[in-house]
Amino acid sequence: MSTSLPAGRYRLDPSTSEVRIQHRTMWGLVTVKGRFTEVKGAGEVPADGGPATGSLTLAAASLDTGHTKRDSHLRSADFFDAERFPELVFTATGAEPQGDGSVALTGELTVRGVTEPLTLTGTVTGRTAESVTVAVDTTIDRDRFGLGWNRLGMMRGLTEVAVSATFTRD
Prior knowledge:
Blueprint: E1 8-12, E2 18-25, E3 30-36, E4 39-45, E5 52-59, E6 63-64, H1 68-75, E7 87-97, E8 102-111, E9 114-127, E10 131-140, E11 159-169
Antiparallel strand pairs: 1-4, 1-11, 2-3, 2-11, 3-6, 4-5, 5-7, 7-8, 8-9, 9-10, 10-11
C-alpha cells in the first residue's frame, strides 16, 4: 500500500487490527457503539509498482455492542442476517499512496449479499519494512445494504465505521 513496501503478499494481523462502529439510535438520543471481534484479511503489493489490492472480512456474528439482547437482534434477519450472510467483506481493487501520506482506496463492500462500490481515504498510521497500518474512518448508509429496519423511526441516519488494519508481509 506504499511504494516503500516490498512487493508480495500480506496478511491482516487480527491482534493489532480492529473495526468499530457507532450509530445514533432511540431518535438520536443514544449512540450505540460496537466492534467486530473476528476480522481477517489479506493484501498484495505487485512487483510492477501498480496499486495494491486486498480484502478485509468481518464475521457478522462477531459484532459486540456489550448488550446481549441487542447483539442477538443485530445478528437476526432484521439486520445482518448472520445465519444466511455470515461475512461482511470489503474488497480493495486499488490502494494507492498519495503525496500527503494518505492512501486512496477503491473497491466494493458486500453486506447481506448486496455489493456496492466504495471509495475511501485511509491514513498510514504505522509502517515498517515488513508491515503497514492503515486507518480509515467512514460513514455508511445502512439502507444501501438492506439494513433498513427502523421500528418507530428509532434508527435514523448513518453508521460511522472506524478501521485500523495492520498488514504484515507473509
